[in-house]
Amino acid sequence: MSKFYLLVIPIVIGIITGGFLAFYPEPEDNTKKLTPSKLIENGSPILGDSNAEITILEWGDYQCTFCYKFHQNTLNTINEDFIKTGKVKLVFKDFPLNGPDSVMAAEASYCAEDQGKYWDYHNELYKNWGGERTGWITRDSLDKFATTVGLDLELFNICLDEKKYQEKVNALYDFGREIGIDATPSFLVFNNEEIIKIRGNQPLEVFLKTIDEL
């Protein structure tokens, strides 16, 4: 019987900690990549107080089903209780797993940022989510979303035509893979001392426990 418990205990611990994967210790060559400033660098504009001690870094794809569900549900509570109150800040980085349409949508979000409306456009994309690889992301639909949030359509289309942010989006995807991101949504929740990984659209309680731990 004692041998049985010795086998079961590590399995139970593994299940409990499955949603909370601390990134430390990391291989020496990854240390610089996992500093807070490096993780935030090149992402979306910060949502919330830039001085908030805890950061949630979301890796997402605009076609991803569970990214959409997170955005429609869990994020609302986090935004009201933690982001708007200055306790947490949020940064979004693109991890376009679903092909060229996801890349184009990500590029469009940064074209919107050029006009100071990144988060308006980001939210509009998820508001109009139409499934994975169903063809809902087109130049016409992206233009429609741009009009809805009040962008200068001519400037927006010049930005897309020039593929101004294609290299940026591809670099974000490559960086994500380098540090172990392999699914969307994935989250790195961190302060200046610790980084915790949450994989997938976990229940709100998982995020609350993580924030509490940090």
From TrEMBL:
Source organism of the structure: Marine Group I thaumarchaeote SCGC AAA799-B03
One term of GO molecular function: oxidoreductase activity
Protein's name according to its UniProt entry: Putative disulfide bond formation protein D
Occurrences of domain Thioredoxin (ranges): 25-214
Top-level lineage group: Archaea
rRNA-binding as UniProt keyword: no
InterPro entries: Thioredoxin-like_fold, Thioredoxin-like_sf, Thioredoxin_domain
Sequence intervals crossing the membrane: 6-24
Keywords from the UniProt entry: Disulfide bond, Membrane, Oxidoreductase, Redox-active center, Signal, Transmembrane, Transmembrane helix
Tagged with keyword Ribonucleoprotein: no
